[in-house]
Design a protein that fits this description.
This protein is of the alpha+beta class and 160 residues long. The protein has 6 helices and 4 strands, in the order ααααααββββ. 48% of the residues lie in helices and 16% in strands. Keywords: Cytoplasm, Protein transport, Repeat, Transport. Pfam families: IBN_N. It is found in: Cytoplasm.
């Protein structure tokens, strides 16, 4: 069963994200304290990725801010994430690398043409686009198999 947010918890996270955009110093301080408290709960990261990738009705700055907070959490605490949380984040990033919004795509990951992948099917090497969701979680080769002429997310591996 796929993770689903608690509606009350989701509304609290959304309010926190909106409050964090306030220019008021006291509000900013309160938001920072609340973020530190929430970071004690790995499930908080599920809410952040949910806002970033699934709440298309939210404004882009709020969705992007959710992703930026998540990136900071990943960089600081990824080794402490339970496997289910890490897997959920990876899956959501990969499923949403093609978001229509350039801001959201940039928040989720970057595309670089810097590595060589080897097709597992035909063993052909090629320089391909590499997508790095949240830039620290996982790299996926999105090359095209010469024999199958279809995107081969699972048919390529990195050549190191």
């Amino acid at each position: 069963m796929e993770w689903q947010p608690d509606e009350q918890g989701l509304q609290q996270v959304l309010q926190l994200l909106k409050d964090s955009q306030s220019p008021d110093t006291a509000t900013q301080r309160a938001v920072q304290e609340k973020l530190e408290q929430l970071n004690q709960f790995p499930d908080f990261n599920n809410y952040l990725i949910f806002v970033l990738t699934s709440l298309k009705s939210e404004d882009e700055p709020t969705r992007s801010l959710s992703g930026l907070i998540l990136k900071n959490n990943v960089k600081a605490h990824y080794q402490n994430f339970p496997p289910l949380v890490a897997d959920f984040i990876k899956r959501e990033c990969l499923n949403n690398i093609g978001d229509p919004s350039p801001l959201i795509r940039a928040t989720i990951g970057k595309r670089e043409r810097e590595r060589v992948c080897v097709c597992v099917c035909c063993e052909v090497s090629q320089d391909v686009w590499v997508v790095e969701p949240l830039q620290v979680l996982v790299s996926v080769c999105v090359g095209v198999c010469v024999n199958q002429q279809a995107e081969g997310y699972s048919s390529f591996s990195f050549k190191f």
